[in-house]
């Protein structure tokens, strides 16, 4: 039997969501508009004889002060989502839908439908920062970290006199020894390159930061340092979309967690709620795979994004699946709108 959980106050206000209802996305419980409102974002890559369904009908909202973690297995579309928001996808990509950004200063912009010129001038780096997943390849090889950082700071309003001290301050914030700023990118370890990339993204103080696996290559104390830095940013009114494999990290610092599976968000809920009582069977499976829980991997493998089954893409791996799962799980009366599942788990219900 499937019963449904009563949506919480926080969860009930935003109905256009994982499963894609028609209600307007992005209004918080108190009516505040989101800083970023992603509405029906879809990305397809055209290959010679196949189409990759990398992101499908994705809805999410990030409010000022919010840290949203996007989690999910490798290849589910997390980095493509970040790149789509910044107009950084290659020519074989088709992007549809909307991603409205309302920066605290400046006009609202639809990131999906604005020109490359506008994205380059007003958005990338300035309104939306990116910590890329592979920083070593993103860093310009012929400039030292110090020069890269000072140039970035000066491009965003720092004077020539202020820039050196500001560069050292930002380096220190991310746990990078200012002495290491004089190295060239190829002289940096993976962890140093990671911290430099984070410093470069933070230097212009963007209202929204997209951080794609920002703790890769860092040892435990630096992981914690970076996570705390992101949390403090949000506590000071900034907003962060954190892409991570690390569920423990998401649990520690995120306000909201969005779980992606095979190009879709299948569940998005306040962090404590999601960890206490996952509703989508895939979320439950991810949590069961944690060493401190059952340590049992999700059985089977994710589908190829060139060959997704009709309806729920998780159904072939799901022990709750029935015939109805061959249809897309759109929200219906009584189904919590943030959970894209015909048979969600509920508090107290037998799994
Ligand atoms: N330029 C491209 N052309 C074709 N397919 C692509 C392209 N870029 C990404 N993809 C595909 O899109 C899908 C999503 O990739 P993405 O990099 O977003 O995964 P991810 O969730 O970030 O994984 P990971 O956790 O490993 O970083 C993958 O199947 C990937 O192969
Ligand atoms: Ni990625």
UniProtKB/TrEMBL annotation:
Main location: membrane
Pfam families per record: ABC_tran (PF00005), oligo_HPY (PF08352)
Membrane topology: Peripheral membrane protein
Gene3D superfamilies: P-loop containing nucleotide triphosphate hydrolases
UniProt keyword annotation of NADP present: no
Region (Disordered): 1-33
Keyword list, A-Z: ATP-binding, Cell membrane, Ion transport, Membrane, Nickel, Nickel transport, Nucleotide-binding, Translocase, Transport
GO molecular function: ATP binding
Xref: InterPro entries: AAA+_ATPase, ABC_Ni/Peptide_Import, ABC_transporter-like_ATP-bd, Oligopep_ABC_C, P-loop_NTPase
Biased composition (Low complexity): 7-31
Localization terms from the record: Cell membrane
Catalytic reaction annotation: Ni(2+)(out) + ATP + H2O = Ni(2+)(in) + ADP + phosphate + H(+)
Key word Membrane present: yes
Its EC number(s): 7.2.2.11
Positions of the ABC transporter domain: 36-287
Enzyme class label: translocase
Subunit comment: The complex is composed of two ATP-binding proteins (NikD and NikE), two transmembrane proteins (NikB and NikC) and a solute-binding protein (NikA).
Family note: Belongs to the ABC transporter superfamily.
Protein name: Nickel import system ATP-binding protein NikD
Organism: Micromonospora reichwaldensis
């Amino acid at each position: 039997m499937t019963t449904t959980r009563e949506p919480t106050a926080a969860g009930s206000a935003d109905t256009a969501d994982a499963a894609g209802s028609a209600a307007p996305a992005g209004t918080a419980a108190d009516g505040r508009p989101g800083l970023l409102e992603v509405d029906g974002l879809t990305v397809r890559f055209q290959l010679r004889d196949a189409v990759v369904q990398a992101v499908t009908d994705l809805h999410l909202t990030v409010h000022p002060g919010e840290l949203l973690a996007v989690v999910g297995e490798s290849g589910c579309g997390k980095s493509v989502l970040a790149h789509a928001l910044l107009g950084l996808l290659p020519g074989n990509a088709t992007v549809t839908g909307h991603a409205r950004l309302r920066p605290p200063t400046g006009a609202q912009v639809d990131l999906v439908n604005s020109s490359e010129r506008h994205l380059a001038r007003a958005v990338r780096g300035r309104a939306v920062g990116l910590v890329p997943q592979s920083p070593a390849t993103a860093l310009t090889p012929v400039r030292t970290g110090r020069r890269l950082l000072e140039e970035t700071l000066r491009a965003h309003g720092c004077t020539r006199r202020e820039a050196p001290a500001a560069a050292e301050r930002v380096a220190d914030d991310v746990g990078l020894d200012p002495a290491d700023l004089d190295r060239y990118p190829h002289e940096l370890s993976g962890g140093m390159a990671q911290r430099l990339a984070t410093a470069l993204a933070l230097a212009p103080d963007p209202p929204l930061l997209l951080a794609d696996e920002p703790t890769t290559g860092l040892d435990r104390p630096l992981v914690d340092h970076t996570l705390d830095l992101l949390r403090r940013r949000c506590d000071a009114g900034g907003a962060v979309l954190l892409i991570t494999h690390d569920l423990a990290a998401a649990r520690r610092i995120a306000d909201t967690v969005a779980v992606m599976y095979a190009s879709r968000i299948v569940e998005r809920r306040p962090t404590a709620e999601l960890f206490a009582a996952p509703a989508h069977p895939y979320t439950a499976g991810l949590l069961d795979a944690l060493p401190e829980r059952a340590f049992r991997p999700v059985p089977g493998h994710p589908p190829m994004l060139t060959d997704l089954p009709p309806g729920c893409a998780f159904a072939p791996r799901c022990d709750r699946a029935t015939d109805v799962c061959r249809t897309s799980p759109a929200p219906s009366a009584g189904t919590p709108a943030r959970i894209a599942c015909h048979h969600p788990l509920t508090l107290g219900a037998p799994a």
